[in-house]
Amino acid sequence: MDFLIPNQLNYPILSVLIFAPLAGAIVLFMIRNETVARIWTLLVSLAVFVLSLPLYFNFDPSTTKYQFGEHTAWIPAFNINYTLGIDGISLLLVLLSTFLIPICVLASWKYIDKRVKEFHFCLLLMGSACVGIFSSLDFVLFYIFWEAMLIPMYLLIAVWGGPEKVYASIKFFIYTMVGSVFLLVAMIALYLKVGTFCIPELMTQTHLFSFNFQFWVFLAFGIAFAIKVPMAPFHTWLPAAHVQAPTAGSVLLASVLLKMGTYGFLRFCLPITPNASMYFAPYILIISICSIVYGGYVALGQSDMKKLIAYSSVAHMGFVTLGIFLFNKYGLEGAILQMINHGITTGALFLCVGIIYERSHSRLIADNSGIAKIMPIYIGFFGFFCLSSMAFPGTNSFVGELLVLLGVFTDHKLIGALSIPGVVLAAAYMLHLLQRIAWGKKGKINFPDMNIREVIYLTPLVIFVLWIGFAPGPFLDVMHASVGHLMDQLQTAGAVALVK
Amino acid sequence: METIITIKPVLAVLIALVASLLIMATPKKPNLRETWSILGAVATFLTILSMMPVILSGKALEFTPFVILPGISLKFRVDALGLLFGIIASFLWILVTFYNIGYMRSLKEHAQTRYYFCFAMAIFGAIGVAFSGNLFTLYLFYELITIFTYPLVAHHQDEESYEGARKYMVYLTGTAKSFFLPAIIMTYILAGTLDFAPSGILHGIFPATANPLLVKITYVLYLAGFAKAAMMPFHNWLPSAMVAPTPVSALLHAVAVVKAGVFCTSRVMLSVFGVELMNTLNLGIPTAYVAAFTILMASVIALTKDDLKARLAYSTVSQLSYVILGVALLTPSGVTGGLIHIANHAFSKITLFMCAGSIYVSLHTKKISEMGGIAKQMPFTIAAFSIAAMSMIGVPLVCGFVTKWYLAIGTMQANNKILLVVLLASTILNTGYFFPVIIKTIFGKPREGDPGAKHSGLHEAPVYMVIPLLLTATASVLMGLYPDYFMNIVKSVDPDYLMNTLKAVFTS
């Protein structure tokens, strides 16, 4: 196990982060009172977040190995192990997941009024699966969490969703299942080739994979992850799912689920099928540009707030895949940071939509326009996150986008120039949305402004937007070594002749 | 150049932010709210003024609160160029705040808290632009100005103002995102830093090894990115922005916003590219030609406008290009003339706009054709207007003359006769669109049906409005008689280059 640094803390931190929410979820069924159930979930998720903080403070940014490692044999007959560990790529994603669950609980305090216990059960389950996905180093374990994530998400949309929840949840389920099948195929193909499910070991065996083999494995991976990201043209499940999902569902969907796709590219495609990744890179760059421009263009024409933000997600995630397939330091670090940024900013925007939906019971821009005078605090927050989403300088997205653009312009000036319309579109649709919401033609509406609870759960997001915007150092420092390692892996693969 | 690390630049920028937050916190108390505006303006001005002796002695003040990436940071730096813009913006903010109070209360405008808040935020952006130490900070505050002036342009919230504000946003944000941002990225890739060159204006930040073609492309991107400078073809937002209340047109669209544009352009030419590189790549004269084209075209369009504010807007478009033309000449006198025009145009044009506003408050018209003979009832306003107009034309003893003098010498130093002819032709055009206004208001007769004829009790605007415009008009004259105050600051931008070569030209 030379790729793993055993956990040095006095408790198995990653296992605790995975199983504590699960245990909390089971206790939930013994609680009768709904308010107590909410408070219990909040406490559990807050405790999990606090417990996850040592990950950051004890993280060694100088090593390329996986840290906080846990390794136990699970099904020895098939060489399947329970292997956990995180590196600079997954650290922030784990923290983002644990950070968002308590916020989701708070955001659902009034919004969810039926099947309250079951709802919070699903939330905790999500929390558990999110940490599992980003920390498992065994392919089978990863796959289990990948699939496990589907169930609570499906339920969140199908039970607590909007009027077209059945259509949306089925569409979501089918799309993701198709992706999962491809992932399963890739996993089995790799196992048959090298006889291990251990992801770091697979990364060291790339010289055994012929280009042809890599080509097909990459395609299987690529379809699975592209659906999750989602990259055009595999994105159509996203607007439907986002629009119908309850606020907490949209937040988790945007902030964590979409990251599974881009994380998959970083964890599987680049290191395990490096030659195919290089072969496919130009095409993916083009698709990314298409996603950016198409997502932005479609977002411009939306009349539904959630749909607009959903299409903006397609555009933002296009920047992430763009950064990943540049294979340079700026691009990769920008992509990872942009994953976090998108999680914070888009999550916050969905929370904002949820706040207004609770008051007007409509997501249409026309029904919620002109509220600057009656909800000034809300417009302050909403405007702030809109600016963050359009990559206003001094916010988190600007740093992420700047890094990605630096990466593009360093190596491919033409593709860089092509991505600029996407940047302009982002400003256009966000400002257009803000303009209509704040000052549009006001109907006969009179909503109370944001209450303390809503201010409380949006404030941490504001802090992170500014923190990453002005001092991204603490967030970038942890990823330097791992990103460097990833680039080394790609370079060695490029240099070594392939087995025919 | 010696650099002193001190928090003062940050303070100067932050006061406006604090003032705007206080304004927002006291929406129900108009008097307290306006007090915050005045206090903020005075405090900003005094802070900036207190930095002046150090800057004039050839030092620069600097502070870096945050580092984002190596070579990219939030960095504030006060040097002579920034000080020039900072002093003008903060001083005029004080006067316009009084004018604001008179204007907004006379017309009983709505949403005054939002108005004062955004006004202070726009000044926050302008001071931030002035004291930026690198391109990232410059970009941040440049965009901040756009965002917070949007509510001011759309203040009336009717069809016309939304249309104007939309155009405003599309032009300013669109160009900043499409051209300015890629230019910054290219600069970082080519130079490895976004910091301005630490000393003088001769040497920029690009290494000698940088690919000349890419550097040229970057330069063009910058020029196109600063739409706030209103160089053609990116000028059209400025006339549209005239739907804003007049004090906004006065301070923002004659001083803070548009001057941020020309300031950024000058800053990039002088502190990012540097005179030597501009000369080597032959970038200066083509820029000057574009500016010259803008000067002539905008003046011709101004001739056709009957709406006083529209005429002033096109006059602004044309006058802004004097600054760019001067700096782009890359000769000592040209640069001096261009930079001093930032100050001269600010004081004169704000006077003109404030006069237009006070005429509107009294007469309720913007049409020049309806202003016949109003000088009898509004002598102070029209006197101030005439003085400022003469300054714009370049009549001696008023400050505009100083600009034209230096610019003319600058074109001769650059040995370019075409640009000299353009300067002279534009002076004739300036006379052509300003003199009819003066003649009409002084010697014209109110026509039947004019608002002035109906309101026989026409009188001067409130004293809150008249005093500021008299002060700025007086300042225009003083700056013409005694140009040294701002000239000293301009000379400090690069004393060696701007002073010595100047002497050499005159003695040879």
Report on this structure.
The complex is a heterodimer of chains A (500) and B (508). With 500 residues, chain A is mainly α. Chain A is 73% helix and 4% strand. Chain A is built from 19 helices and 3 strands. A 3-stranded mixed sheet of chain A has the order 1-2-3. In chain A, a hairpin with a 4-residue loop joins strand 2 (66-75) and strand 3. The longest helix of chain A has 32 residues, at 329-360. Chain B has a domain at 301-492. A 3-stranded mixed sheet of chain B has the order 1-2-3. Chain B is globular, with a radius of gyration of 22 Å. Chain B has 20 helices and 3 strands. Chain B has 508 residues and is mainly alpha-helical. The chains are: A mainly alpha (500), B mainly alpha (508). Chain A binds chain B through residues 372-373, 387, 392-394, 399, 402-403, 405-406, 409-410, 416-417, 420-421, 423-424, 427-428, 431, 439, 470-473, 476, and chain B through 65-69, 72, 74, 111, 114, 136, 139-140, 143, 147, 154, 157, 169-170, 173-174, 177-178, 181-182, 185-186, 188-189.
Keywords:
heterodimer; A: 500 residues; mainly alpha; three-stranded mixed β-sheet; 19 helices; 4% strand; B: 508 residues; 20 helices
